[in-house]
Design a protein that fits this description.
Chain lengths: 398, 315
């Protein structure tokens, strides 16, 4: 009798302790589905970015039609926050506490993400691949549940600094930057990149978003004798700066930040002939760039767009961005296998080794680790030839 | 009168019980409803009772929120102490803005206040203030926990804290508007020359109404900052002001209870609209708004009053 009891107890114990490789779930995951939450500005001042959320929704619709991830369907729940931080807080709480999602993916904008930064980490819910270039998302020590995705502003600025030190070691650099967190983030990266050579900067001038023009700043920079110009401006001011520099006959080696590289909204208004020779960076294949016209990955993206998001624009870079970041999450969830706990999601997101979505530029890969929460960290330099951007040199950064 | 008191008592009991029945997320949403109700009550004092249209109350909401956030962030003030300070600052700011606004009537006042609402987010980003306001980054605030070892979680405590202040603000408004001052405000709205002939100091009352109205909205702003634990210029764009105006019209102009209905509307209808359509959430919101205004031209409060009157007259 006693022996029988002992056997029973042993069996019970065996049944209770999960064997290796068994399924493990946190809220939001089950045998049949994975719930992924998201906020996006479908209305309000930043609603042009809403197309990213729609692309991601379309992507997971395709994944589900093709059988899901490891047999589980992705339930992508996305809410409108109108780029308003209080709304983001409310919606993030709805996703975590009511919809009980496994993770929140790609909330958009620096202020909205700042608003939920603490909350997500207090709740220990993955706050994954946020859609902003601020550097603070790469802080695994203090915020182990938050991770960015795109190359951050500081990384980009460091790359320009390295290029200048190599190509023009005696340069006199003039900097124009927007006086806010975005501009200062670039400036810090640039200073760090120059390091001991910081004295190469002969003049730094700033402008306010509310300023009508940056003409006087450009004149000041020319007067300083600078022969390299680092242009940290948003589209409207970038166009003004390019035009003014050309018109007053200032011909520096001109670096333009990635924020303002759109041919349609920046270079065309500035004047394409005035933009010749600009240097910037890229990390995603631009669907309007002729060199990718027959590229397999861009072609695959076009087929996807036509079938699952027919309203979406085929010339909007944001739609390639949304597609690429969705592929990244797809990979993370695939890696999780049957262990769909929040901790494992973060662990898998933090253990990507040279993985590469095909829509990134050739040679750019995603690498993360327990103390590196910055997935895309390399970019390639490009130069404007009067018609389009031409990539040159090797892939830079980590 | 007795029935009203009974009704309010029942409402209060339900309000006290709710956070123990619903989830923390819903409790948080209800906290926001009370915050909005306080703000709407303030705007209603100005627009509903006194007839001055403001398209810029989001600015006072922001002012209250930043007062609370800066005091907590820079001076380490306890959260509860920031509410009266926000009230005082907004009272003064509202009164001062009300003085020049006296020269403006109707649509001109609406435009002046609109300018205030538009300017506010940019002022908050202003470089020389960034030391305190945190610039575009905003300010992150810690969440208050329940004091005295009360068996409440942070959301429930915040709910009761907000409830207490909201009830106090409503009682205050009730006393203010049901008496001599309220009648004077309405008289100025309806016929200001006649009101002055009766000895009402129109200028003083109008500025005072502006001040009190801003104070209410400022208190709501401070409460919202505490509830959301974050303030940033993007939280207070011009849309906030317009949504407040929508709230008082839908809830019922010149009605105290209307503030509550309006708050429920502006809190929940946008969420509903978002669930119906991602492509055009504000179009759906617009349909709801037109529906409400068309079916209840005197607001929800007016419709309920009518309904009750009908029931009473037909036995």
């Amino acid at each position: 009798m006693k022996a029988k009891l002992a056997t029973l107890a042993a069996m019970a114990a065996l049944a209770a302790s999960p064997a290796h490789g068994q399924k493990k779930y946190d809220p939001g995951a089950s045998d049949s589905e994975i719930k992924v939450g998201n906020t996006n500005p479908y209305s309000g001042p930043a609603s042009a970015y809403g197309t990213i959320g729609k692309t991601i929704a379309a992507y997971f619709k395709m994944v589900n039609e093709q059988g899901g991830i490891n047999g589980r369907k992705v339930n992508f729940i996305t809410y409108d926050d109108g780029y308003s931080p209080p709304k983001t807080v409310e919606m993030a709480r709805k996703l975590v506490e009511q919809d009980k999602v496994l993770l929140i993916f790609q909330p958009l904008g620096t202020p909205p993400n700042s608003a939920i930064h603490k909350y997500m980490n207090a709740k220990k819910v993955p706050h994954l691949f946020v859609a902003t270039g601020a550097t603070k998302w790469d802080d695994p020590k203090n915020f182990p549940w938050t991770m960015g995705w795109q190359p951050n502003y500081q990384t980009e600025a460091k790359i320009y600094a390295q290029y200048i030190m190599k190509e023009k070691p005696n340069a006199k650099i003039g900097v124009l930057y927007q006086n806010d967190d975005y501009g200062k983030d670039y400036l810090k990266g640039f200073h760090d990149g120059l390091g001991a050579k910081k004295s190469m900067i002969v003049k730094e001038v700033s402008y306010e978003v509310s300023d009508p023009t940056v003409d006087s700043q450009i004149v000041q920079l020319q007067a300083s004798g600078a022969d390299v110009f680092f242009n940290v401006t948003t589209p409207k001011f970038a166009a003004q700066a390019i035009r003014k520099a050309y018109d007053i006959g200032w011909k520096p080696m001109h670096f333009l930040n990635n924020v303002s590289t759109s041919v349609a909204t920046v270079l065309t208004p500035a004047g394409l002939e005035k933009s010749v020779g600009l240097i910037s960076t890229a990390y995603i294949k631009d669907p309007t760039d002729k060199q990718w016209a027959n590229d397999a990955a861009i072609e695959k993206w076009r087929v996807f767009m036509k079938k699952y998001y027919p309203d979406g624009s085929l010339t909007d870079n944001s739609n390639v961005y949304g597609y690429t970041v969705a592929i990244t999450l797809h990979q993370v969830l695939r890696q999780c296998g049957d262990n769909l706990t929040r901790e494992n999601v973060m662990r898998q997101a933090a253990s990507m080794k040279g993985w590469r979505p095909e829509t990134l530029l050739p040679g750019i890969t995603i690498t993360t680790s327990a103390d590196d929460f910055a997935p895309v960290e390399s970019v390639q330099l490009e130069r404007f030839n009067g018609k389009q951007w031409e990539l040159f040199g090797s892939v830079l950064g980590k | 009168m007795k029935r009203n008191v009974l009704l309010i008592a029942i409402l209060l009991i339900i309000a006290c019980a709710l956070p123990f029945v619903v989830s923390n997320y819903r409790t948080f949403q209800l906290t926001l409803v009370m915050v909005y109700a306080t703000a709407l009550l303030g705007l209603n004092i100005l627009t509903g009772y006194n007839g001055q249209i403001s398209l810029g109350h989001g600015a006072f909401y922001a002012l209250g929120a930043y007062c609370a956030a800066i005091l907590m962030d820079q001076a380490g003030a306890p959260y509860w102490a920031t509410v009266p300070v926000a009230a005082a600052v907004c009272l003064v700011a509202g009164f001062l803005f009300g003085l020049p606004a006296l020269r403006l009537e109707g649509l001109y006042l609406a435009l002046a206040t609109f300018a205030l609402g538009v300017a506010m987010p940019q002022l908050l980003k202003y470089d020389h203030l960034a030391k305190w306001t945190g610039g575009v980054q905003g300010i992150v605030i810690a969440k208050p926990e329940a004091p005295f070892g009360l068996p409440l979680n942070a959301d429930q405590w915040l709910y009761f804290f907000t409830l207490a202040i909201t009830v106090a603000m409503f009682v205050l408004a009730w006393n203010l508007l049901r008496g001599r001052i309220g009648r004077a405000l309405v008289a100025i709205r309806d016929q200001h020359i006649a009101a002055e002939a009766m000895g009402i100091d129109s200028a003083l009352y109008k500025s005072a109404a502006f001040g009190v109205s801003a104070m209410y909205t400022g208190v709501a702003g401070a409460l919202s900052a505490i509830a959301i634990q974050y303030v940033a210029p993007d939280s207070f764009n011009i849309f906030v002001s317009i949504v407040f105006l929508v709230g008082i019209v839908v809830g019922g102009l010149a009605s105290i209870s209307g503030a509550l209905y309006g708050a429920l509307f502006i809190q929940f209808v946008p969420n509903l609209a978002d669930e119906i359509s991602k492509a055009a959430p504000w179009a759906i919101f617009g349909v709801f708004m037109i529906g409400f205004v068309y079916l209840m031209p005197t607001g929800v409060a007016g419709a309920i009053r009518l309904l009750l009157a009908k029931r009473r007259s037909s036995p």
